[in-house]
Amino acid sequence: MRRPMSCAAIAAIAGVTLSHATLHAQPVDRTAPPRLAAPTAVTMPTTEERTLPNGLKLVVVTQRKLPLLDAVLVLRHGTEADPIGKEGLGALTAALLREGTAGRTSLDIAEQQAFLGIRLGSGASLEQTTVSLHAPTAVLDSAFALMADLVLRPAFPQAEFTRVRSETLTGLLQLRDRAPAIADRAFAALLYGESHPYGRPTAGTETTVETITRADVQRFWETWYRPNAATLILVGDISVEDAERRARALFGGWTRAELPLIATAANPARASTGITLIDKPGAPQSSFRIGSVGVARDTPDYHALMVLNTLLGGSFTSRLNNNLRETKGYTYGAGSSFAMRRAEGPFTARAEIVAEKSDSALLEFMKELRAIREPVGEEELEKAKQYLILGFAERFETTADVASQLAPLVTYDLPLDTWGGFQRGVASVTAADVQRVATRYLDPSALRIVIVGDRARIEAPLRATNVAPLQLRDAMGREVPRP
Amino acid sequence: MPVPPSRLLGAAAFLVGAALLSPPSLTAQSAPSIPFEKYTLPNGLEVILHVDRSVPIVAVNTWYKVGSGDEQPGRTGFAHLFEHIMFMGSQHVPVGKFDQWLEAAGASNNGSTNFDRTNYYETGPSNALPLMLWLDADRMGFLLPTMDQEKLDLQRDVVKNERRQNVDNVPYGRFLESVLPVLFPTGHPYSWEVIGSMTDLSAATLDDVTRFFRTYYAPNNASIAIAGDFDADSAKAWVSKYFADIPRATAPVRPTVPTVRLARDTMLVVEDRVQLPRVYQVWRSVPALHTDDVAMQALAQVLAGGRSSRLYRTLVYEQQVMQDVGAYQQSAKLDGMFVLQATAKPGQHPRAAVQAFEQEIARIAREGITSRELERVRNGMRARMLDELSSVLGKADRLNYYNYFAGTPDFAAQDQARWDALTSADVQRAAATWLQQPKVTLSIVPQGKPDLAITGGSR
Question: Would you call B157 and A330 a contact, using CB atoms and an 8 Å cutoff?
């Protein structure tokens, strides 16, 4: 139903002519952007380290801008420690910390958390488990006590275990609704294989979660939640002395134990480029995940790869986003990343592509992944480097920002002053470095290409590109059972 | 590190929790404030400065007082599409250079559109401030000379993909576009979704771009907040140099809100590619800063805000018939709405949720909330305010919010006072007044399973 154009709009159009009469200031020369003064040097937060007798490490950054504190307890192991066939155990254990302790019920914990106005979370990713607290310092006593209770005295009540497992299973069922999530899971499985820790689903599958028992959870917690494999990071309105006193009082009684070794897995053998199509009937977009096994966090090529990725798909003006979004309009955004882990994590290029341009987008992705191996121009290189170097200050603005920059250093055993060398490291990267790492780590002839989309609309056009052979798989990335 | 490139139709479209900050302090802490200086250029541009030199970064945040509520019929989604076009260069900024120059200076940028306003912002190292201002001035004053069909067509495609990514290819993604046209009467400025329809996006023309720009993108319809590490005198000089000669336009008038309300309970059923049925109940409620605004926010928290809420306890924790529950009060500038939702566990019918919604609303309308619940909600609000004060971008956006919604950036203390004054009786009255009115019940069910919908009264 149309309604007439409002009086406001009509008046405004008329107003433009009148408004020019108010122009009186001296015209400004706008032909070139202003020259900028030299940037202010970034001061890295000062970290203080302590170690408790039980092995718990403490990292403290005092930052008194606001009466706030961020605390992150980093445990060095995550879902990689899930036994084969019990995938999802580490994630379930972390979730169950909040569901009851020796002295508090699940509802008590939730109520206390809300009453204090704090955020208290727990979760497991591949190579770390974290319990994190964000609290106003006015409630620090209660907040810390609650956090420690969750970590040290979880009760894993049977009723809560049964309920949370059921919620997890429902969540896995709902994952089928989301093509991007299906693509992420299948890409990992297809790239590494389901027996490699990086190929196994961190949240588990409906089959594996079904088999998890309360005793499994209890054992997982007893095995992996140990102070000698943990670091408590504290950032905010707190002194080192106060932090240490509190850590000793709350975590001093946590008992150490030897942790089992996790076997390292061999990387999959190189395979030539292939496309895997997973059907999502009716999907208006196709979820693209393209990549290969990349590098570990301790790679000597870290800074060169950061620059490479920034100009390939790590910034708005990067080649992938500029091509697929800002030139072609096929997507709302395209990007790429190197997930650097203890061992070689994946390189992934990604986008959600309008279904009818799936074939064209595939060709553009391949074009960019080939072109990145050619020498990069000086202007483009400088833009990427300056974006990383000058944008660095923003990563350390809030207490939560600082904590999130420190946590991965702990997980990957890097010195706490690592970030102090970041800007220098990036500044030293040359065009030759970028080309060298591009050639070494991005091989267009050995890529896993996973596309989740409407098979009826996109299969034939994708095959017609002749980019690579195409296979069909189910939502887990497994062979589709024949009817 | 993946940088999801986005000109998001941000969370701002749901200024839910964010819109209700009150300064913190559970007990003895002094109430933080956002010290600022405000002045107005002769052309009407409002300028708000907040200096915080703790980290060498700066945020520039510009609000234009135009949102999807200002769109014309047949052009839904245009305010947001226009937002995208604002990044495509202007007379002195060739296509692509807006982003390239900012990135080369270490800065990032984005924008968002909601019912009431469109915002644009840059953050980055403090020495990039003059570049940010220069770029923002160029698109405020000189967008049209280089505007062309190609720019429009390209961003139209991008926005259609944004819609696919955030609405069409997302489970339950059609919630808002199903509810809004029923909840709000025809012609109401909030009766369509911010992202707009594919048909209307296709219909937008270059003439629309010109007209929209001339109507709404004038200095006297905007405010610019600068927060962070800068020298106030230098900032004023740059603002004056780059913005002062941009001519004002006749002030646009915002649409009015029809007073007519939903006459009777309305049931809607949408089939979607989902595994489980979800039910939404939506009431028209009150706008931001209305007498009952904070009471409705509190009600949302008490009913279904997290794991300490009443409906979580009964439906998810005790009966275990729902996978999740949720509630929010959206307080926009001209009007508001209140939403309750629940997703059924496998084998369960959403009917159980609707019955519980009705019971708890009736109980609160009868008895109010407990003093513990009241205190909990207040503490949560105070903590959220502190968080928003943590970043210069958060502070800049808050100053602009208060400036537009309350008429002054200096509103943090009054905002907190609203929460301090809240009583159980206020929440009780708000529940009785606004949630015992006719509502829209929307069931989003798996394809071919209309039996999982709510189709009649719950009694």
Answer: yes
